[in-house]
Structures are given as structure tokens and as C-alpha cells.
Amino acid sequence: MLRIRLNELVKADDSCQVQAEVWKWDGIGWNEFITQQEEDFIRAEEELFVTIPAEPGLYRVDYSSRPLEQLFGLPEAGEQGLLRSSILHPAPFKLKDGTLWGYINDEGKVVLEPRYDYAEDFQENGQAIVLLGNNNGLIDSSGREKVKPIYSFIAPFSEGRAVVSDARGYTLIDEQGKPVTSARYDYLNSLQDGRALFSKQSTTSPSRYGYLNRQGKEVLPPVYEDAGDFKDGVALVKIRSGEYALIDPDGRKLHTYKHPYVGNPGEGMLAYQAVENGKSGYLRTDGSVAIEPQFTAALPFMEGRAVINTAEDYGNAYGLIDKQGERIIPAQYYEVQQLGENRVALGTPLYPDQPYRGSRYVIADAQTGGVLSSHPLLGVNNYKDGLASVYDAKETYFINTSGNRAAQPPVIAGSGTLSRSGNLIRADVDQRTAYYDLRGRQVWRQNGVILLRPPYSVVEHKFKPNNDYLVYYPVVEGIADNEVARKVNHRLRKVSLAEGAGSGAQEFSYSGDFAVSFFRKQLLVLELTGYRFPYGAAHGMPTRIYEHINLRKGRFFELKDLFKPGSKYVEKLSEIVGKQIEKDPQYSYVFPDTYMGIRADQPFFVDEDALNLYFEPYEIAPYVAGFPTFRIPYAEIMGLISTEGEFWQSFH
């Protein structure tokens, strides 16, 4: 790769920051963004570099400077006890073993090496949830296991307890990882006000709900048809059809409501329907009517206001009312989001004839209904400490309570969110993670180069022609023959669908990414994933392709290349997969009588010990089963494998 120093192009000044971007001409326009490993903004007196791939093409470097602003809005270290100097931050790393998560400190240095399939923030008790394989566990800040990875799910701790689940059901554990419930439950919520909502289901009756205490004891038996969490010492439960009650932690009925529907309380108000499937209004907690039924949807009150909908036939006409039912914001918006700190986001469809394609938002004062900022935003998050993370058609940044862009950096090209992480700001933008200090200096970013073995590496390139199309595709570097390298990378870009989008009418959104699935000797296996979502569809369709590349020759292997010429590998592999479906309980989800054997070009991938065959969603199983995969150890099919063939020899 070619590295270019840019400091001479921009006047050095202690009071400014410099930004640089590299773009490549793709034959149509400057549409290909070249990911840089350096931070987006650095002080001008520091060294600023950009890197350009070692492949022919036209490249453009854009650079600009901006003054350092006075920063505000986020409390400094020590204020309100919000910051801890020892906090660690979860960070993803792209490696030759796939994407793994570790932890960095405030300086961006790796403290816990990347070894987890996913990692969450450390909680107040000093423990973090991590994923290893398909199981979750808990670690402390030194990386020691506090709870072994044996659970399919672990919720964050609440009141010293965490909800976990495994094949037997749900239970509560304490901070030492010890279960505190003697039974397992079909459903279990986190502790709230000393009570955890649970449900049990029998073969003779539907589910009933009850409550556990902190010691895991069933203090309120499962007798309720429905129930909500405790908040401010009360919870709403459904006694029977047409009868609800507000109870205290001991199960005493404080108030009873005889209506077809009553919603959870919010600031002393409960949404209700006087007629089944009729209009909604609001009750006071004593059961008296506060606002007569007149809305097709009525959400809980927050900061003295509630979002309501007046549209018929499942339409959208949302507005905002006060506790007297007076309209603060007229019911004419496709969306109204309460953001906290007396602010709301008002959403209107980007495309009026296709409202499901998303909204544009403006910020309004929730007390007066007045629009504060009409700049169109495409994504808005809640306010905290006077700031909210937003993104528009170009950038992700913070806004202040006036609805305008805040002085608090960073400002990042792309769509995503910014969030506080101890002394740092975490940026999750365009499906990539980075961390910044409070002055906007980037201290860490997710790597875009995967080092394999000299001279080989895989470099991440980004293709984003519009906000509904984002692909990260691989470019293999180190192949000796330039023409071979060009052909390899041209195919990878093509199968990644990193071309031809964004120039005309697009009826779907698409995201694509890649990972190194396996690398050994001269064999590189790349996993290319995608998700295509047609506008207005119930769900999208995922795709998965594995490319097996001989790095020395640039050849892409097919399944047949693994086996001896003339061998009946299709019949043998079909038989093995059929037996797994028949005998292995993990494949009980396969549709009956749908499996008819594998194809000669069956999708596959190899690893060190086995051949893996997989099927597309819906092909032999429900959508939720994803890509049914069948692992076949080489030892089971060694007689069929061409051990002297190029495919086998490339990684043996």
C-alpha cells in the first residue's frame, strides 16, 4: 500500500483539526470509499497520513480543517460520579479467525485480547456479558470467568440478580453466578422493585403469571392471566377477561378496573378501552375517567404527556396530549417519539406513497409543540445530559436541546449512533465501531486490514451509493501476479454485490459484509454475507456465500474439486446428511419429506477438520432456522477425497 503524508498541504495550527478521506473512481463516479486506518480527525500538529491500495486506479484525497470548538454537554470526569477510571470498553476486531471481541482502555490499548464472539459493556457490579460460541457467560475486568459460558441468554443485572436461560428454562442468578430459584420458568423478567415477573404453562391450561422475590421465592403465585412489571411500588395484572387490578408487592388489590382492556400505568394514568377493540382513553389510578375514549392508540404518559393516534384502519396520525387531553401537537404525524428532557421528534414519511421506507424527523418542544429545528434527521435517539445522538443524510452527531448540532464532537460520516462509554464516546456508524475522547480525538477504530501471513492480507473496502445500500467487500493483497490479483478481487467485488446499485429506482435495502472463515497454507476461505429487505416486506432474506481461494494461483474451488474424479461423492454426502437429519435431534426442525439429497454444487465451506454443507433459508426448513448446516468430518469421507488434488493440497 502507498502511504501519503498530508501535513504540508494544511497549515499547522494548534487550534484546528484536519480531516482526510480517500475515494476511488469506479467508472461512473467517485463512489468507492477507501477505509483508512488512521483516525478521522487529528490535531494538525500531529502527523496525518492516508493510505492508497497497491492496485491501479484513479484516487482522490479530500482534506479539510476545522477549528476546535469549546466542548460542553457531557460531564467531565468525577462529576455526578458518572465516570470510573478503570472502565473498559468492548471492541470488535477483524482477524483471520473471524470477528472477535476484546476490551480496550481509555487510551485505546487492548487490555483483554479479542477472544469472544460478542462482548457487552461492563455493568456497575464490574461484570460483563460475553458470548463464546453459542453460550453466554460473565467475566470481570481482569478477564476471569465469574460465570462459565453455559447459558443461551443472560440479561443485565438488576437489583443484584440476572435472568439467565438454558435448555431447561429461565432462572435468576446472583452476582456469584449461583442460581437463586429452585425451579425453572417458561418466562422470567428482571427484578423491579424487588419482584420478578414469571410465567408457568401447564398441559391443561394456558400460561399464568406470578412474581418472585429477590431470594427466588414465589411470593405471588401464578394466578394472573396477564401481568406487568412493578414500578413505583405497583403493578397492573389481569384477573380475568374484563377485569384488571393494580396490586402492591404483597398482592393486595389497590384498585380494580372492569374494562375490556387496561394498559400499564404511567404517571398515574392508565390507557383503557370501554368497549372491546374500541377507542382508547385514560383512567386515573382510582378508576375515574380522566380522558374519554377517542383514540385508536394511546401510549403511556411520560413527563406529563402521552403520544396518541387518531387514524382509523391501522393508519398513522400521531400527536401529543397533556393530562387534560388537550392537544399539544396535532395528530397529523406518521411518528411522534418522546425523547426525554421535554423534547419530541416529529416524523413524516420520506416517500409519502411508501411510508414503510422510513421517516424524516424534526425536533420540537414537548411543552409548547413548537418546532425547534427543521433540519431533516433520519435517525433520532433519546436525550441524556442535554444531548441526543442523531444522523441525517450525511453524518452522525450530537444535537443539543435547541435541536441544533451540538459543539460536542465527534461528527462522523455515515448513519448510526453515538453513546457515552465512561470517559469515551462510542460510535457505531455504518456497522463499524470506533471510540473517541470527549474532545473528539479518535482513540480506537475497528481495523479494516486482516493480516493473514506475509505477504497476504485482506483489506476492507466500503461501497455505499445511498443510505439504503451498504456493502463492505474484501480485497486480497499479496498475490504475486498482478493480473491474477485483479481477477480475484474483481470476482470478490462482484459476488459481494458492491457495484451497480444506487443509480436508479431501488425497491429494497441491502447490507453486505465479509469475514475470514478459514486460512491455512495457501487456502483462504471468505464468508460473504448479505441481507436484502424489499420495502414493505414482512422480513428480508439473508444470503451467505463462501469463496475458497488458492492464493498462489488465484483459483476459486468448487465442491467437486475436493473429491476424486468420477467418485460418487454426491450420493455419499447425501446419505450422510440424510442420516443426520433422521437421527440427530438438533435437526428436528427440518420440514418432513423436503430433503431429497444434496446437489453436485451444494453450498459448502471447509475448515481444518471437516466439510460443512448448508442449505438456504426455506429450502428444507423454516426461515427461523437460518442456514441448516451439516458437519462431516474428513475422516468419514477420506476414501472419496482427492488427497493429491490442488484443493486438498492447498491446505494440507
Automatic annotation (TrEMBL):
<protein>
    <recommendedName>
        <fullName>DUF3298 domain-containing protein</fullName>
    </recommendedName>
</protein>
<feature type="domain" description="DUF3298">
    <location>
        <begin position="560"/>
        <end position="634"/>
    </location>
</feature>
<dbReference type="Pfam" id="PF14903">
    <property type="entry name" value="WG_beta_rep"/>
</dbReference>
<dbReference type="Pfam" id="PF11738">
    <property type="entry name" value="DUF3298"/>
</dbReference>
<dbReference type="InterPro" id="IPR021729">
    <property type="entry name" value="DUF3298"/>
</dbReference>
<dbReference type="InterPro" id="IPR032774">
    <property type="entry name" value="WG_beta_rep"/>
</dbReference>
<dbReference type="InterPro" id="IPR037126">
    <property type="entry name" value="PdaC/RsiV-like_sf"/>
</dbReference>
